[in-house]
């Protein structure tokens, strides 16, 4: 999980560079809602939907922070 999250953050940094070069906003609340809705829909398991959503909100936050980071 840690390795995959690290890879995702690296991709987010690249996405941030792309967005900055084109003047695109880092945050996209609509897209974030879509992702969370999809996660809730696909979720099956021992964790509650609320727990899964909290985890994904933290992943989204880490990726947004990575997108804002300038290289």
- Outline: globular
Arithmetic mean pLDDT: 93
- Spans of 5+ residues with little confidence (pLDDT < 50)? none
Share of helical residues: over 70%
Q: Please report the number of helical segments.
A: 3
Biggest sheet layout: none
User: Which structural class is indicated by helix and strand composition?
Assistant: mainly alpha
Total strands? 0
Alpha carbon gyration radius: 13 Å
Beta-strand percentage range: under 5%
In sequence order, what are the helices and strands, one letter per element?
HHH
Report the end-to-end length measured between terminal Cα atoms.
Answer: 25 Å
Could you please describe the fold and organization of this structure?
This protein has helices at residues 2-22, 29-42, 49-68. It has three helices and no strands. By secondary structure, it is mainly α. Helix 1 (2-22) packs across helix 3 (49-68) and helix 2 packs antiparallel against helix 3 (49-68).
In short:
The protein has 71 residues and is an all-alpha fold. It has 3 helices and no strands.
Descriptive tags:
mainly alpha; 77% helix; globular; 0% strand; 71 residues; 3 helices
């Amino acid at each position: 999980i840690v390795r995959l999250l690290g890879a995702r953050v690296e991709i987010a940094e690249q996405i941030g560079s792309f967005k900055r070069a084109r003047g695109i906003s880092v945050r996209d609340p609509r897209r974030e809602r879509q992702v969370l809705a999809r996660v809730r829909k696909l979720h099956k398991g021992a964790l509650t939907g609320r727990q899964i959503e909290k985890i994904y909100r933290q992943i989204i936050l880490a990726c947004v922070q990575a997108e804002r980071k300038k290289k």
